[in-house]
Amino acid sequence: MKSWKWYATASAIALSATFTAPVSADVKMDDILKDASTVGDVVSYGLGTQGQRYSPLKQVNRDTAGRLVPAWAFSFGGEKQRGQESQPLVKDGVMYVTGSYSRMWAVDVKTGREIWQYDHRLPEGILPCCDVINRGAAIYGENVFFGTLDAKIVALNAKTGKVVWTKEIDDFKAGYSYTAAPLIVPSKAHGPIIVTGVSGGEFGVVGRVEARKVDNGDLVWSRPTIEGHMGMLAGKESTMTGKQNESWPGDLWKTGGGATWLGGTYDPDTNLLFFGTGNPAPWNSHMRPGDNKWSCARIALDPETGEIKWGFQTTPNDGWDFDGVNEVVSFDADGKKLAATADRNGFLYVLERATGKFVTANPFVAKISWAKGIDKTGRPIYVPENRPGDPTKAADGKKGSSIFAVPSFLGGKNWMPMAYSKDTKLFYVPSNEWGMDIWNEPVTYKKGAAYLGAGFTIKPVFDTHIGSLKAMEPLTGKTVWEYKNKAPLWGGVMTTAGGLVIFGTPEGELKVLDDKTGKELWSFNTGSGIVGSPITWEQDGEQMISIVSGWGGAVPLWGGEVAKSVANLNQGGMVWTFKLPKQLASKAK
Ligand code: CA
Ligand code: CA
């Protein structure tokens, strides 16, 4: 009798393991377009293609958040750690999460057990500028997609993790790589397309946005971001970006930068793709007088053709590495379709998203030195003496005069995505208060070599803190509250209808704040620094919150004096998942 019971229990366990095994993902375009409002899954980067990172869930709220407990934690394992900047996806009870060194996992969200792991085989000599990170995957049909450090896009079968197709974006030996989450959007002519950019702005690559067919990765269109370069559509040259030499001198546009390394967002209301573009190359701005379009800009693209519908340059003739890549987040206010974007240069911009028309811009960090403000047309009012000096005018012709500029080149805000709350109508901007000594040097382009023509050291602006999460009114620029953090913030933010703002710190804490007051409601130390972006979804009636933990990214590599202050932080690689204790969860419903 006893042994019979044992067998019965064992077979029940085996059966339940079979039943909780993943069903195959079948993500439809509608699932992606409605992702922001469907609470049972997260099938896009940004919790919706508009990038608001707002969840309508409220089981975890101001009253219950203090009771959150870990549900499970999953280790990426191995010796490969470094920065974990990814945002997981969840569909049909399976989490798809990317990690450092171009890896991906499928994890059972009920147990935290691994279903499969994919390790991309990386060649010798990859050239990632800013750590071996990855920011997340895309999902459509039965496949998941992600970019790799050797500049490929890989499609994997969601059920098995087996490769379905691989396409090369470009030559990694020239400095190309890809770390952003791909974006999947509809097109009438080509069906669903997967849209990506390129990384490599510090190596003099030329930025572009590309669309491929989701079925086989075949190129649909390509749109360079630097004027003078030709676009492609349906296998043929289409149109030139801008007009050759209009805002670039000589041949510098040929290696002109403008990398689209952070991917983009998509607004179904206007049917536009929004991508940001990085610094013009090289950093030494004296070599390229002119606006250098479309570097340091936001561009809106037609998903059918890849044509640029509008462009808005945040830092024309950039001399501070103020990449204009940061996310464009759609929101509605005053009956208008608007978009907000918080730039590396320290200003939070609001544009009309159908036309790119400038609405307003306000500073979101203190002591900005390179510009006095933004004029009525949206153009910066430069402080000429805060541009690093021309090295050809130096006595030795080698080192131009050094200046102290705020923000530092790592930005008032870097890649880490902000969030918008539909309830408070505020943006929650993860920012950093720091500056840099910067000077220019002569430089010539060499394939696969850093193409900067600048030297720099980053320094804090305040003794007390660098990180600063700000709750801001987008149209007035008013800071409603601020949460100061000693180390620089480097992870994404999420808001919920429960009145919460959720984000992580390099010190390792996942934090939940009250969206109205900034009051801390809950905090949990994940054991390594957080530079990933949180998600939340509902699983069998329970609200789950996940974050990837694992310290790294650009700060330890490029942070100068700031890097020294965070050198003690331990690396890692874990997904943490939290929920309320079951009894409490059912009461809160
Ligand atoms: Ca959803
Ligand atoms: Ca850059």
Structure description:
The protein has 589 residues and is mostly beta strands. It is built from five helices and 40 strands. The chain has a six-stranded antiparallel sheet. The protein has a five-stranded mixed sheet with strand order 1-34-35-36-37, with no helix packed on it. Strands 2-40-39-38 form a four-stranded antiparallel sheet. β36 and β37 form a beta hairpin. The chain starts with a helix and ends with a helix. The N terminus is likely disordered. One calcium ion binds next to loops.
Descriptive labels:
40 strands, mainly beta, six-stranded antiparallel β-sheet, binds calcium ion, 589 residues, 7% helix, 5 helices
Topology (elements, then pairings):
Elements: H1 2-20, H2 29-33, E1 54-55, E2 69-75, E3 89-91, E4 94-99, E5 103-108, E6 114-119, E7 138-140, E8 143-147, E9 152-157, E10 163-168, E11 183-185, E12 193-196, E13 208-213, E14 219-224, E15 230-233, E16 236-240, E17 264-267, E18 272-276, E19 297-301, E20 308-313, E21 329-333, E22 336-342, E23 347-352, E24 358-363, E25 371-374, E26 380-382, E27 403-405, E28 419-420, E29 427-432, E30 434-440, E31 454-460, E32 467-472, E33 479-485, E34 493-496, E35 500-504, E36 509-514, E37 520-525, E38 535-539, E39 542-549, H3 554-558, H4 561-565, E40 574-579, H5 582-587
Parallel strand pairs: 1-34
Antiparallel strand pairs: 2-40, 3-4, 4-5, 5-6, 7-8, 8-9, 9-10, 11-12, 12-13, 13-14, 14-15, 15-16, 17-18, 18-19, 19-20, 21-22, 22-23, 23-24, 25-26, 27-30, 28-29, 29-32, 30-31, 32-33, 34-35, 35-36, 36-37, 38-39, 39-40
The structure holds calcium ion (2 copies).
The site of one calcium ion (CA) has 5 residues, from loops.
